[in-house]
Amino acid sequence: MPAGYGNKEEAQQSQRRRAGIEDFEDLKKFNEGDPLAHVSWKHLARGQGMLVKTYSEPVTGSNTLDYQAFNGLDKEGRLSRLAWWVVRLSEQQQPFALKLPHKTLEIGAGNTHRDQCLQALALFEEQV
Fold first, then answer.
1. What is the pLDDT of residues 71-86, one digit of tens each?
2. pTM over 0.90
3. pLDDT under 50: residue ranges of the chain
4. Which among 106, 109, 98, 97 has a CA at the least distance from the CA of 67?
5. Which residues are within 8 A (CB) of 96 and not within 5 positions of it... i.e. 6 or more apart?
6. Which residues, in sequence order, are bridge partners of residue 24?
């Protein structure tokens, strides 16, 4: 993630883990709506019931998407990558902030925050 320096609160979060796809964390009982791709088929075949694998990943660095973090890309490349990250983090329900040269949107999550960030990126020309 193209992260900026962040703040003290974000640094404290870096010691935690969040739901993710990197490291196996635990097995839990299957609930309706759990992805079938996460079912532990070996446990089911052994007659141990339908269990789901959960994964986590470390929360590292800052949760700030920073325009300046894309060294070597032109303006359109930076805006495109930032928009992609805004959508991806929103889909994962991960809180994030957006830092542009002349505007900063504080840490937030949800559809409203996503829309505000995408609007700031779309109107970027007017900010410069």
1. 888 999 999 999 999 9
2. no
3. 5-15
4. 98
5. 63, 64, 65, 85, 86, 89, 107, 108, 109
6. 55
Rounded Cα distance between 1 and 76, Å, is 17
Tokens 């032109």 -> residue? 74
Structure tokens at 32: 């309706």
Which tokens sit at 16?
Answer: 């935690």
Q: Which two tokens stand for residue 110?
A: 């949800």
Residue among 57, 64, 54, 55 nearest 17 (CA): 57
Which tokens in the block code for residue 79? 């805006």
**Contact call for residues 56 and 23 (beta carbons, < 8 A):** yes
Q: What single string gives the DSSP state of each residue in 3-68?
A: B----HHHHHHTTSEEEEEEEEEEEEE--TTS-GGGB-HHHHHTTS--EEEEEEEE--S-SEEEGG
Q: Distance between CA 38 and CA 61 in Å, rounded?
A: 28
